[in-house]
């Protein structure tokens, strides 16, 4: 495995060595070098032709270029004649609209352009090569994000094409302070990665850190933003995500306005924002578009949901195995009646049900849509739960507990976070099964200690709660109305910058002097 | 470099593995599955003729109690009632547990009922057991019954799932009324061990003894009769009621106060909040004015000036009018004043009646006079305390002042009449 990897690496290096050679003015030599580089690439097309006695050659990748653009290039060039008293270069500059044509003088960039779908025009006796922008941009259209749907707010989501994604961000933040820096990652994929931030809002130290961490990446391919995420995140062994990955451009822009740095990867509809705090994973994009009161309540519902997902199964197990004193008498008798003839201890029941739920969930996700994944999931849950209870393997309360847990876990708005919290419930369940509530508490303490010790690009993961930064609490425990959100979340970007004026709150107009006189 | 790193990994995996193995070896050592518990709901403690303790436990049979939701099991009785004897409560419980297939669990005991004889002889020693057993909650109700306690706990619950819940509910409902003198075990223990006050608790007895007629749906009676075939149906009361007070002295039951006396006790303590009192209309009128007592307050002011201690008790009673059956009565201010005076007289009578009984006859300080003295001057109380229950309490003079206040009669002053004009 490692051998083949180094082989690939060498291959890549060799290509870059040959391509860094300067362009010669001989058409044939250039073509032969390119043909050597693109050996056995049957989809590359070399099309030698004559334009008014000048021998030229078009080079392009047939699958990557737009035929319409090719036709337009051809037509634009056909007007050229040597009689007109001007050079080839100036003709092209005049004939083609701004930005569609580049002049290249290095072989390496020529290869890069060909690979990204440009059409190359090699002209004899010229020491530079023209590249026409002809990329066939047939990707997915901008649609509603599938993983983060909201009722209110913008409905557009990122797509795979990085240019579209950058456009979505640029359109929201129309300022020259929005900086976009391109990088290329992956020896074989040559994936374009862009670092996006607002100069003067984002902390320079964090921007540099992102640069540094990205430039450290040495891998053959980057197929999704998660590759990058796992390679640049702090404390890589921690299960908790410390970089937020989102499909929503508005979410990225909100982060940028808070002083975060966005990382956009070509080929992935998920953009990354860093640094990210724990509380962010409990915030939905919709929080900021709904009324303050509604968002605050829903935020608390999510906090409760987080705890329910974590500890409801362990709580039930603890109460039935160790701490019966905590139950009310009628409930105790009820549970005892339900569990009278059950063969397995409640801990085994809980593990069994959790596992069953995971089976059903995974099956529903992976099942081809033709079979109706969602329907099967619901049917499976209902049928298996019901019949397991009727067969006397599972207590009905355990079925309720696991169903509620499964349901509440989906309250968590971020998918990665949802996964982690769901799986954290299992060790807690085991601890409770062995040690009672003592185990639960110890497990939760360990978890909390771990969370508090985490950092995301130097920013404490639990801030602004711990370390306490009270000015940030207006977006943690509540979602303050927008007129009260006059400062940014502390600790992320440049310190002490107001995001809004103080007078945004609507007030009755002050009566002017004339009005008062009239009243008199 | 690489080798040492993988070694580190392996070691952490080994440690994890060892941890899991050790965990599974210990197992869930203090765990008790809920279905392996015999949930004791009520306990009755009696003393039999031979002087041994007789402990009766009422154990819930969950699968018969909630037959609809239970997975299996059909049974006739909803409760398993077992009685065992022993020299002590603990020994009796030990004997009892041999006849119970699951671990007896006392965390949900709602009430402990003492028979009269057990309360007279074994109160202190039994309380020791309940204190040492950590299962018991400190808010278990403590009740005394005249006669045999085991008969009382055998009665079936009527409106709640278990009899324990029924007793708890009725005790809660009648708090601050003459029937709601029920104390929980921690309060009782505190009063019992204090030298400034004597312990009291509520009395429970079959409702029939209180002149309340209990009749049940025909069907239910039949089915119950078939359930309890062979048992002596007569002894088991159908409905229980709380009434009166059991008075303790030096850790033993001293006597019972009936309802008017209990009312007197509550007047003096200023704790009465729900009660109905009927006054005569006066004159030739044969009807009554029924008053609803809405609250009472009392203030004890002890005086230590002379050789003998003296006590002033000021009682304030608030009432409103519940029902008027007098034929011709005008609710004028004078009339209200007259009713106030009548009520004051009644309160004074009842207070003196209970003082005669508890203070003079039994020499028990259930009113908390001692507490008032000890609060006023703790040093002097220390001198008084040794002789408090040996004469000092009896000799103490008590002045009772009552001020009654009938309010909230509103505009609806006069009794309802037939043929009233518009």
From TrEMBL, chain A:
Q: Which InterPro entries match?
A: Spore_Ger (IPR004995), UPF0353/GerABKA_families (IPR050768)
According to UniProt, the name of this protein is: Spore germination protein KA
Specify residue ranges for compositional bias: Basic and acidic residues. 511-520
- Region annotation (Disordered) maps to 1-21, 494-520
Assigned protein family: Belongs to the GerABKA family.
Q: Please give the start and end residues of each transmembrane region.
A: 300-322, 342-360, 367-385, 391-412, 424-448
Q: What is its main location?
A: membrane
Where is it located? Cell membrane; Membrane
Q: Does the keyword Disulfide bond apply?
A: no
From TrEMBL, chain B:
- Pfam families according to UniProt: Spore_GerAC (PF05504), Spore_GerAC_N (PF25198)
Annotated Spore germination protein N-terminal domain residues: 32-205
Topology class, membrane = Lipid-anchor
Q: Where is the Spore germination GerAC-like C-terminal domain?
A: 243-410
Instruction: Enumerate composition-biased segments (Basic and acidic residues).
Output: 217-232
**Mainly resides where?**
membrane
Region Disordered, annotated ranges: 206-235
Would I find Lipoprotein among this entry's keywords?
A: yes
PROSITE patterns (UniProt xref): PROKAR_LIPOPROTEIN
Q: Which UniProt keywords apply?
A: Germination, Lipoprotein, Membrane, Palmitate, Signal
Cell location: Membrane
- Please report which protein family the annotation says this sequence is part of: Belongs to the GerABKC lipoprotein family.
Give the protein's recorded name. Answer: Spore germination protein KC
**Mind giving the lineage of the organism this protein is from?**
Bacteria, Bacillati, Bacillota, Bacilli, Bacillales
